[in-house]
Design goal:
single chain; about 525 residues; alpha+beta; 2 domains; six-stranded mixed β-sheet; four-stranded antiparallel β-sheet; 11 helices; 20 strands
Length: about 525
Amino acid sequence: MGNGWTVPGYSEVRELGSGGSGRVVLAVHDATGTAVAVKYLSDRMREDPAFVREFRAEARLLGGLVSPYVTGFYEYVEAPDGAAIVMELIDGVSLRSVLRESGRTEPEAALVVLKGSLLGLAAAHRAGVVHRDYKPENVLVAADGSSKLVDFGIAAGRGSTPGVAGTPAYMAPEQWQGQPASPTADVYAATATFFECLTGRKPYDGGNFAELAVQHIEAPVPETEAPEAVRPLIRRGLAKRPEQRPENAEAFVAELEALAVAAYGPQWEERGQRKLAALAALLPLLFPSAGGAAAGTTAVATTSIGSGWAPGRGGWLATGLALVLGAALVFTTDAAGTPPPPSALSDFATTSPSSPGSTPASSPTAPGPSASPSPSPSASGSPTPTPSASAPSPTPTPTPWPSTGTTPSWSPTPTVSWSPAPTPSPTLRVTKLGVTLTPGAYRGSASVSVATQGSGPVTVVVQWYLGDAQGAYSVPDGTDTLVVQAGDPATVVQSHTFTRGRGCYGGVRVTTKPAAASGAASDSQRLLRCTDVEPPR
């Protein structure tokens, strides 16, 4: 913080990490001696009202989540000189640091990470929230092998269309396409991280955004690189289509537990947690309680796809995906698979809710603090079966404050206002709609052009068909829905894999809501797999 402002009622101990968006510090609540993590928004970010709104939204979201698998939220404070989120401090290290040191984990330890992660995500999904940026950096592993999920900086409401955002190495196919936020995208990211724990590498290794987009959308799931016993989880979690994955994190947990018991016995979880704790113990100097120097970052890298690379095989598909109307292309660090520098606390960023009744705050109405606060906020939180990190706190056990429950304490000065989403303009019109289908062997890419007047969201419905003749839309083969923002004429590219053996002509029909003045648009083309077959007469 350039101006030196600190949250009233807390004494700063040392910095845990910093970056372009702000910094995270280890602090102590003066009234009780509870160690906490305070995330400050940088002066530069505070000058942008949009960033301030997002920071408030993150705090509000965290205040509504209570789970032992998500880092605890204490309070949000905003004043003329600064804004900050006060969070539970977890004495742990990021899963990224563990993988950087160890390369990979044994299957039982990887299953523990996945289960805890899914339980943390399940709490968010029940609250109608999609994390959208699950990755090893956002999992914290404590000394006892427990873990927590952190950093909801780009989370969004289920079904909302906040634009294309996330960390490319872990983004689900539909996330690249700007489709509405869905729990199945979080399931995909958690499975990608699970795969990395098992194999020591990410599922796809594209050298740039274009290659990664194509690989996540088209490349086969690399399940054979993982131990055979856990391949069913990888097949399910990394399925290309959202409907082929478990519908949410809670459903995936049930599948995980059944598989883990069958493959590794009823004690798999205890063994896995011990193994995870042993890996974390290899990094003693990275724990906040060790008092090491800050060497982290809270920065978020903003990257616009389309500059600095030339589309190659499949690259134009990725280019089209990047042109989703109105998409804010926000990609966090570790974008194209390049690991961050090996720094001590490289992943400290946002933290969130924890155990009920653990809430330090300068307000007398704040929930009472946990009897065993755990130091260490980070952009990496990995939940495990245990309720919370139980590493010894560097401060004495605090006396609980008067508590009225788990409602977060809001101490805004001036009053914080929550900005509602803009209402679509009543004059929104789709003036023209067009579509061109480019066929492949089994795939087709539909380039949809949309011209609009006014402002607001436009829903684009892409229906796929197969048939035995040009223009014959006789066999429905799936539907995709995109939501784009009205603006200048633009093109959206959507791809589809046609079902085999149901016709040699692929077709597409596109409609919009509101309906286009030019009506529906359609096209059909002969699939290349049928080029050696005499066309039907």
